[in-house]
């Protein structure tokens, strides 16, 4: 069966140009070419092989990760890869490592908060990886509330430097990736204290380990925080614990781009607008949204292909059973996730644009749109990561029993992905920030201040509070304007109701706190609207390729209508639609699923993922699932011997009733 | 801090008698005493220690499991434990092993499908564990559709026996627990072929391994199917693969209780009613529902205690931050799960009663209620396992970043639990069976045939189709009759609509298939009603203990009203309640959460779980979370050396720019 394409019949059903869709997914012909080249480079290199992750212990796993990271750096240098190519290559190596934090957090924070002088010194070292850095913020007792950090950096005029100290157990730095074993340096966030006054949390560059023998420097206790969820997953990362016992650093290792301490111990704010930090935040969050679409698309790719291979029930006269993908229960769970993967891809693109736009505005000292940008990116981070985490697990369940095997690739994908719901802002905390902004926007609607950006729709308050949906037959739900208005009306009406309820409380803070659970739903409704509207916007653009736009239109409609069905209570209780219209949406959904069905395999082929990157026996491009599962099974260490270790000690005595003798 | 109870202030807030609640949770004073004694027996025995599971490789893990299983068997014999005690002891050992399948499937299937003679021979061996058995049904290509199994058992008159054979790769037995390494015997399900005719799937007792040296017998290929989801989790179980190459077994090893093959190769059905098999099914499913309440209660116990310890934000004037448990977002996610754990406990009790009732009816040849019992148990298995799996992961997220560490116990609990959604009937397949029964029941409503048991409410069709909810203020939602009627009306109206829609299709099967996704929702509504009504029934009974009933009432109302909020779309679109009444339910929920808040820690204490059984640094009884996390971290193998393996090979060359030389 080797070399046979078991999904060929599926691929021939496709009603659109898959190669053109690949370009749409990648964002451009150039992106596709780079991605494709880097993916193949990684897949063909034996050092990057990844199929034994679940079978080795943590020390070996970590050692392999170090080898891969070093090899990637070697190849990046040898091939003189561009920054874009290098970043893609690291992505396809597909294993969390200290390198992620070095490039993704250490370098950016120095860029954002360092002075020109500091850039010159530290970035030069970091770019060449002559030092390895991490980002040490979170503490054992302090996560979301950064202002609650306990580590202190006390100015010491005698040595013209700072004394970094961990005053309590809960002040131990805890979680920073790359900290435990690999990093030589960290940007440490600590309370700046000078002249007996606490100036709050600031960043300091601290050397942790000797550059000669990698031993921790005096006063520094550093280690790994232990095993995390999943077999391989994030266990290739050395998330670390770090304690300081009065560690001295020179004064110029405080990041002084935004504020500084003079030789005399005076605290001074620079005249650089603090808002500049927003640029980094937007950048990080758009990257997280891109990651979400990538992770969800991998999961749906595996589940769609396997659902086309797997057959169960429905055999007529001894013929083959039905493909699981033909069952409407499978479609109604899987296709909304496929549609979400595409939706998140396009909203990620838009966030990328937003980042450019914000950067331009910041440079022009234009800060008025920042609160809206903050709310929008916080909300999209929360929405996309939550849906993706749940969606991967749903895809795993959609693969039935075999999805529970590590060879399916899905347990690993899930376990490695879920931290995204917590890091860079807990998803619920972020949604409450969004809600706070929405409530404020609503309260200002009468004031003449026009809401902007993703909240612009709130300016149509008079219309949206009283409009009625005009859907009369199922196909009416295919009109983008109808969908958009329903989502806008729902989001606005929920926000208005929430604002009203808060205003009835004895004070706004208490009201906000008591109604928090409702406010999370208000924020969710707003964020879903953003994704729907950006998907609709995408479809207004020119999209080349035979049938490509039609497929995307179907996915966009599935995305919107499946949300409408899932949150029907919102739409009905706000009077945006009638129960009858809700039922019509459901009817239209069924029709859309049947239109996607013949295109499903081609729609996941468009992601252009290599079998190496997918890492799944179930998601193989050629659909040759069962022989792969069978062969992989025998590689398990338990199969190294036919009779298991422990037979003579622990099985035979049971069978031979050796314990009964012990009964006196 | 050792010995201090950090949760003492929480425990003193409780408004009810925790010891009395422990008895309610356990089911009786006797149950509590046995559970408590067995839990302590396990917790105090060093062989049963479990805290290193995530740090060892699979061979060592499996070897440890064999040791624990043998030691448990030794203790069971030494202490002459009763069956009840032995089963509790195994539960608290809390590690999946071959023993589960031996006692849970091998023995019961022989009991249910064997003849008296077969019982005498095989059960005697099995009870003494002179043989170890498993249940070999599922195949690589065949899961839910048992009728599609491919393994053959062909009658061979010459040898007066059967030839067991695996004709294809997809016919390989795949998944059976205990099969891979430990079992000496299996009940193998295979297509019975005699005289050239295929009589469908039947069970056969097959010896797999020599009782002398544990080597597989000729013609048998057997092994483990490889690593599964999670670090420890189900990897202590040897789920297996098994292939037969024309293996001969004697004729009397076919399980002949329900049908048999004569010496001449004639196939005969016995006159034992086939419905008797239902008894076993009800038994297995009630056990699964009990497991669900146990797993969900463990997760909520961890999350509630940690939420009382964890503080974040809300510090005033440098005082302590707020307990996370005080945030209404945390309460609105956590308390419905706590309420579900209790709800599932009571519906499990009721299923236990149902099992006794069914057994009595079967013995009296009374089969009329069986379809309803089947639908009810299938639905409750599906509902409780899905909610529990999602609920554990939600509890993990509610513990923030630290929930991602294996020392939190939650990743392990999740990974070991999720297969329950798939085994013993895929949850979606089961819900469709429920829906099929409901649609049929609806279609017979006019016929004079009265629906029984959990569908009895459908007999009130005229009232339920037109009744209107009379809630006018939030507290009206506390009336059990009001809640019950809303849930009954919702379930019935959804079933009626679905039946109507199906009847409009060109044929019923096509209609059923096209509307499957809706039908899953119909079945869910019905199953939620069952749980709600059994919780309400429980509260009609006498419940002793100061404040105990009041707490259970609050939990019952939270269970029902949080479901109403979650599925608001159902209630509104069927016109069971108005949007205003939905909002009032939400208002009442908030009030209920604040009433549960001071009792939350005591409500999870009532589960009476030992720290050993919980296996969680976050869920410790004494709340001493941070020192435990800190100490556990240093036990990770990565911390065995300060400088990690691979430093000289893979880190130093990066830092020292050794790769740059390679660039020519």
UniProtKB/TrEMBL annotation, chains A, B:
Cofactor: FAD
Residue span, Acyl-CoA oxidase C-terminal domain: 480-656
GO MF entries: acyl-CoA oxidase activity; FAD binding; fatty acid binding
Ranges for domain Acyl-CoA oxidase/dehydrogenase middle: 134-235
Pfam family, one: ACOX
Cellular component annotations (GO), alphabetically ordered: peroxisome
Record carries keyword Lipoprotein: no
Keywords for the protein's UniProt record, in alphabetical order: FAD, Fatty acid metabolism, Flavoprotein, Lipid metabolism, Oxidoreductase, Peroxisome
Domain Acyl-coenzyme A oxidase N-terminal stretches: 17-132
InterPro entries per record: ACOX_C_alpha1, Acyl-CoA_ox_N, Acyl-CoA_Oxase/DH_mid-dom, Acyl-CoA_Oxase/DH_mid-dom_sf, Acyl-CoA_oxidase, Acyl-CoA_oxidase_C, AcylCo_DH-like_C, AcylCoA_DH/ox_N_sf
Superkingdom, natural source: Eukaryota
Localization per record: Peroxisome
Binding site for FAD: 138, 177
One Gene Ontology term from the biological process aspect of the record: fatty acid beta-oxidation using acyl-CoA oxidase
Residue ranges constituting the Acyl-CoA oxidase C-alpha1 domain according to the UniProt record: 278-439
Active site: 424
Keyword Oxidoreductase appears in the UniProt entry: yes
SUPFAM superfamilies: Acyl-CoA dehydrogenase C-terminal domain-like, Acyl-CoA dehydrogenase NM domain-like
Family that this chain belongs to: Belongs to the acyl-CoA oxidase family.
Protein name listed in UniProt: Acyl-coenzyme A oxidase
Gene name per UniProt: LOC120279176
